[in-house]
Design a protein that fits this description.
The complex is a heterotrimer of chains A (340), B (319) and C (503). Chain A has 340 residues and is mostly helical. Chain A is 68% helix and 2% strand. Chain A has a domain at 69-264. In chain A, the strands form two sheets. Chain A has a two-stranded antiparallel ribbon. A two-stranded antiparallel sheet of chain A has the order 2-3. In chain A, helix 4 (117-140) packs antiparallel against helix 10 (230-256) and helix 8 (208-218) crosses helix 10 (230-256). At the A-B interface, helix 4, helix 5, helix 11 and helix 13 of A face helix 4, helix 5 and helix 12 of B.
């Protein structure tokens, strides 16, 4: 057998953009996934140093309380972003959820009195709207941001339309109890939110649906070749998202004691901030519900801290905006992708 | 060989449809409610359209390169606040300052999207948040009325020329300049190329990154102008002023026939789209349709208009 | 003995251009069959048919004597045929175990929830078959290339629990990402696994094919030209079979090849791009055609991309007309008078939905501008001029490029760079997808350009074209230049000489 005439050097690695993983790369990756937690701890320390009241029990309870509804919303959005898509319809679906609940329990406008079943119906309403988003996205092959942008305004309009621009006062005490009653020092709503997050985590980690979300986000073409039902998964995930958002809206209504169509306004931004800051990548396939939860707490702590330190509340939005930019810019290496 | 008729025929249909729709709508509404067809009303419609058009025109430049700008309403609001705050002291200088605010923030959006490689909808969502926060901070979340000593400067916007409101002239000028720029400037040519085939533009030596940033700067400037116009017409500036115009401005772009995949459509088409949106809005008020139902309608129209105009061959995997 | 896999008269055409012509082959139990051939010989196409990625245009595939129609890789898997890609079927963000059983999770469910313990146990069993000793929960992105290759192999092997009969495993260039000792490991595994599976081994590294295979098929131009037991094969014999007859010289207008000038327009010394190629030296002279030959993975594609600013070099120098340059983006290269006719002409060469005229001026709009505005009349004149000079057949200068044939599209791309006044042209697979007539026109144009002083860097599909058109040929393998040939008029090297340094 004739010998080849090439010099005995190792073949240079082809660049696939993934790189040869080394111990160094693994360490960097571990650091990156630990970053949100470190940021949270750092923030707490900084704020606590500036104003020790931060660590007071009642303040911590306040932080937990203000994290509750964002945490519920975050569950839905995390799944959608893990797919590699985005859901901009949160505010509209929250409004619908709040509207449905407030109109179905004992209130000052209608004569219905469905008690806690109203929450279930609100969730179904959200499920239906989300499913619609999913079907339009998958069926008409319209990018998710466009579909959910349209659904955002359509569902907000729906809520407005049904309420005629007015407000409905909730008179059912059991519904109000969800927000006001305390269990172990924390409002019931916080425990509900924790339960919801736990359910979301189980879905993510222990169900086929959850694993398929990661597969689709990590490589939709490969996932398709392996027989994963891409379209079905996407519709279910958007529907699931809608369910979470509507639940958030229902909880918001119970918290406020009323239902109105502006209940959702301003909620999209902190939700996306939380998911991105928690380490979930916008291209999909990276991140998790627990990580997003840390992001939710970071946002809550930041808002709380800004108030404690005397910053204007309007700075919150600006800071969140900068946070998103920083989080996305630092995250995944996107050397040659076309970014739209 | 390529099937000739398909992309070309579809493009032709896209061009003609919106204009036909506009004409049909005007006739329909005028037939149902005679008050709609009067010159008075039509001028109203046009004036209303002008403001919307300024926002939509800016959005068009970004859409043509395949992006989306979700911050333009925040830019407009911020500009309105700046104008309201400064006009009494600085007169016409305040106008310039307000528009420049838009230019600067457009640059920020462009930078974040292009240089930091953040997808445009997230980048502009974020910069929009920063702008909203700034506007809220500056105005302390209140609307700022323009006092007596500022009012005199507003006539440059609210006045009439030859019986036609200044804003309509402004809209017409923007339309004309925009069309000239699109057709006859290097920037216009490069934008189309980037939108219709970014890899080819890149491989032909077009400075894609620079071009994209310019698009965002333009959009921001036009949005700043829109904010100025709004503030002048309302005689006050507010941090929430333009918020309800985001969806209609995007709808105007899409309904006019510019594809969100980029490279097809333009400023002229957006004018038709803006007119359609305005006619529908005002028409619905005339006909007596609930204002909230309008939102539902616009949301639905947006989705289907995108569904029709989008070029699916460009995106293999729809996310 | 009955063949485990048999192909009878398999053919495949893409848009009328045949990629595979009436191929017959057989795979027997417990054997490794090697498949060799030049770029474009049809190896990958054949593999894709067998793996179920595509359907043949005609012909039959038989498994254990039974005809098969494979509409998807999943169907192929159901029949025990699996392809080991170069990490193309792995999801890097998932764990090893998840990748192994992707799409088959229901085997490990309990009460609707995944039983991770059982999944990991099953994963460990599969990994043991290829002696891969890693924690199944490891993220796939953290594995080395070699480990990923083994994982792919394990994934293919895991089919044997589900499918009756012997497995057929297709190895598509599995060694291009591996170090030498990893290759040895892979071969040891494959030999050990011959008891339970049969393999088809595709590679451009002939020494490896000779080392691992029991029988070898040689393909050329879409057909099988030879089949022999490895014992009867040798490198020179394979080389000869792979390249076949030399083409008629006038096809490449060799008589029009003129001597090039002396001025060096483009010079590379020690040019290196980490991970792609290393220590490349060349001088490109005025009016010269420099051909670069090499198989996929040789680094020639990346070298060419560097010359146009898609990929920055990490070491060494690049000089244009004596001045050192470093291109960060293509616009830099264009500014230095370099043009690029890409292989993906419909994606990178033309903006299909714009007109001929718009495309022709895209690289240098200034030519038709005055006082900062585009003079449309001037643009139309320019476009009409090129249409005439290059004989571009189209309905008019306003015709959209999408409506043109491949050959005419290529001419529009050329017109673009001629408008830009490029003195150095990079031709990347310039005749791909063109019919014979269009190819001839391209060759004629290249000769004309050289005569006018334009220099060309050429990477072509076939060795024949490279040798026929070039004045000088650089041969690359595994990231380095392995040989340099003068290819003057009447003194062309034989393809066999080049192949020796490519594979």
């Amino acid at each position: 057998m004739a010998s080849s005439s090439s010099a005995a050097v190792a073949a240079p690695r082809p660049a696939s953009g993934r790189g040869v993983p080394s111990g160094n790369a693994r360490l960097r990756r571990r650091l990156r996934s630990a970053a949100p937690l470190l940021v949270l701890i750092g923030l707490c320390l900084l704020i606590g140093l500036a104003n020790p009241y931060f660590f007071h029990v009642s303040n911590l309870v306040r932080i937990a309380n203000s994290s509750a509804i964002p945490a519920v919303l975050m569950c839905g959005e995390t799944f959608v972003i893990l797919l590699g898509s985005i859901d901009l319809s949160i505010e509209g679906v929250v409004a619908v959820g709040a509207t449905v609940v407030s109109l179905l329990v004992r209130n000052d406008v209608t004569s219905l009195d469905l008690g806690l079943w109203a929450l279930l119906l609100a969730v179904f309403a959200g499920l239906a709207i989300g499913a619609l988003s999913g079907v339009l996205h998958v069926g008409l092959r319209i990018p998710s941001f466009m579909v959910t942008l349209g659904i955002w305004f359509a569902s907000a309009g729906l809520a407005n339309f049904v309420l005629g621009g007015g407000t409905v006062r909730i008179l059912d005490p059991s519904v109000r109890l969800l927000a006001l009653a305390r269990l172990g020092g924390l409002p019931l709503m916080v425990w509900i939110a924790l339960a919801v997050v736990a359910v979301a985590w189980v879905i993510q980690h222990y169900t086929r649906l959850g694993r398929y979300v990661y597969a689709i986000g990590g490589g939709e073409d490969v996932a398709a070749l392996s027989g994963i039902p891409i379209r079905r998964v996407k519709v279910i995930i958007f529907a699931l998202g809608g369910a979470f958002y509507a639940l958030g809206g229902a909880l918001a209504a119970s918290q406020l004691g009323q239902g109105n169509a502006v209940m959702g306004i301003g909620r999209l931004f902190p939700t996306i901030t939380a998911v991105v800051v928690g380490g979930t990548s916008l291209v999909g396939g990276e991140g998790s519900v627990p990580q997003s939860l840390i992001g939710v707490v970071i946002v809550a702590v930041l808002n709380n801290g800004m108030v404690l330190l005397g910053f204007s509340p309007y700075v919150q939005q600006a800071v969140q905006g900068l946070l998103i930019i920083a989080a996305v810019a630092i995250s995944v290496d996107r050397s040659r992708m076309i970014v739209r | 060989m390529m099937n000739l008729s398909d992309p070309v025929a579809r493009a032709r249909l896209r061009t003609a449809a919106p204009s036909l729709l506009l004409v049909a709508l005007v006739i329909l509404i005028a037939a149902v409610t005679p008050g709609f067809g009067t010159p008075q009303t039509l001028l109203e419609v046009l004036a209303d359209t002008a403001t919307l058009y300024l926002l939509a025109a800016g959005q068009t430049f970004v859409t043509l390169i395949g992006g989306v700008d979700l911050s333009l309403q925040a830019v407009a609001s911020l500009s309105s606040v700046v104008l309201a705050m400064l006009v009494a002291r600085f007169g016409y200088g305040a106008f310039v300052a307000a528009v420049l605010v838009g230019t600067v923030f457009g640059l920020c959006s462009g930078f974040v999207h292009v240089r930091l490689r953040v997808p445009s909808f997230v980048a502009t969502l974020a910069t929009g948040g920063v702008m909203s926060g700034t506007a809220l901070l500056l105005s302390d979340a209140h609307s700022i009325p323009i006092g007596e000593n500022g009012r005199e400067y507003l006539t440059v916007v609210t006045g009439n020329l030859l019986g036609v409101p200044h804003v309509i002239w402004l809209g017409a000028v923007v339309l004309l300049v925009g069309m000239v720029v699109q057709r006859y400037s290097a920037f216009g040519r490069y934008s189309m190329a980037i939108g219709a085939g970014e890899p080819a533009a890149w491989a032909s030596g077009v400075r894609v990154e620079r071009q994209k940033i310019i698009c965002f700067v333009l959009a921001g400037t036009l949005a700043g102008l829109a904010g100025v116009v709004l503030a002048a017409r309302m005689a006050s500036g507010s941090p929430m002023l333009a918020n309800e115009l985001l969806l209609p401005s995007i709808a105007a772009v899409v309904v006019g026939g510019t594809a969100v995949t980029g490279g097809v459509g333009g400023i002229g088409r957006t004018m038709i789209g803006a007119l359609i949106i305005s006619v529908v809005r005002i028409g619905m008020i005339f006909v007596g349709v609930n204002i909230f139902a309008q939102q539902i309608l616009f949301g639905t129209v947006l989705i289907f208009a995108v569904g029709i105009t989008i070029d699916r061959s460009k995106i293999l995997i729809v996310k | 003995m009955t063949a485990v896999l048999q192909g009878i008269q398999l053919s495949k055409s893409f848009v009328g251009i045949p990629a595979l012509k009436a191929v017959d082959f057989e795979l027997h139990p417990h054997e490794v069959v090697g498949l060799v051939g030049e770029n474009g010989a049809g190896k990958s196409t054949l593999m894709r048919l067998v793996a179920g990625v595509q359907l043949p245009s005609s012909g039959t595939l038989l498994r254990d004597g039974v005809p098969l129609v494979l509409r998807s890789p999943r169907e192929a898997a159901d029949h025990g045929i699996a392809m080991v890609f170069q990490e193309q079927s792995l999801l890097l963000n998932l764990s090893v175990a998840e990748n192994l059983f992707l799409g088959r999770e229901q085997e490990f469910m309990r009460a609707g929830l995944i039983n991770w313990r059982r999944l990991h146990e099953a994963a460990r069993r599969q990994l043991a078959k290829v002696e891969l000793d890693i924690d199944p929960a490891t993220r796939t992105a953290e594995l080395s290339f070699a480990a990923r290759q083994m994982l792919e192999l394990a994934k293919a092997l895991s089919l044997e629990d589900r499918v009756a009969g012997e497995l057929v495993i297709l190895l598509d260039e599995p060694t291009s990402v591996l170090e030498r000792h990893e290759v040895a490991l892979l071969f040891a595994r494959v030999r050990a696994l011959k008891q339970r599976a049969s393999f088809i081994f595709v590679s451009h590294r002939l020494d490896e094919v000779l080392a691992l295979s029991d029988r070898i098929y040689v393909m050329k131009d879409g057909a099988v030209v030879a089949e022999m037991p490895t014992a009867e094969a040798s490198l020179p014999k394979l080389h000869r079979l792979m390249v076949g007859r030399e083409q008629h010289t006038e096809f490449y207008r060799e008589s029009d090849q003129e001597a090039h000038g002396d001025a060096v327009v483009l010079q590379a010394r020690g040019l290196t791009a980490e991970g792609h190629y290393r220590d490349v030296d060349f001088d490109l002279r005025r009016g010269e055609v420099l051909g670069i030959a090499g198989v996929i993975g040789s680094g020639r594609e990346e070298l060419v991309r560097t010359l146009f600013g898609f990929l920055a070099h990490t070491a060494g120098t690049l000089k244009v007309d004596g001045a050192e340059v470093r291109f960060a983006i293509p616009a830099d290269a264009v500014a230095h008078g370099i043009g690029y006719i890409p292989r993906e002409r419909r994606v990178e060469g033309l903006v299909l939905l714009l007109s001929l005229a718009s495309n022709m001026t895209l690289a240098n709009l200034g030519v038709v501008m005055r006082h900062g505005w585009i003079r449309r009349a001037r643009e139309r004149l320019l476009a009409a001029d090129w249409m005439r000079k290059l004989s571009i057949r189209a309905s008019g200068i306003d015709a959209l490029c999408v409506s043109l044939s491949g050959g005419n599209q290529q001419k529009v791309v050329l017109a673009k760079w001629l408008t830009a006044g490029s003195r150095i042209l990079i031709l990347d697979h310039p005749t791909r997808g063109l019919d014979v007539g269009a190819k001839e026109e391209v060759y004629r144009l290249v000769r004309d350009l050289c005569r006018q002083g334009t220099s060309v860097v050429l990477t072509a599909d076939s060795l024949e074209e490279t040798i026929g058109l070039s004045h000088t040929v650089l041969v690359m393998r595994d990231g380095r230049v392995t040989a340099r040939f003068e290819a003057g008029r009447g003194a062309k090297p034989a393809q066999v000489d080049l192949i020796e340094h490519m594979v």
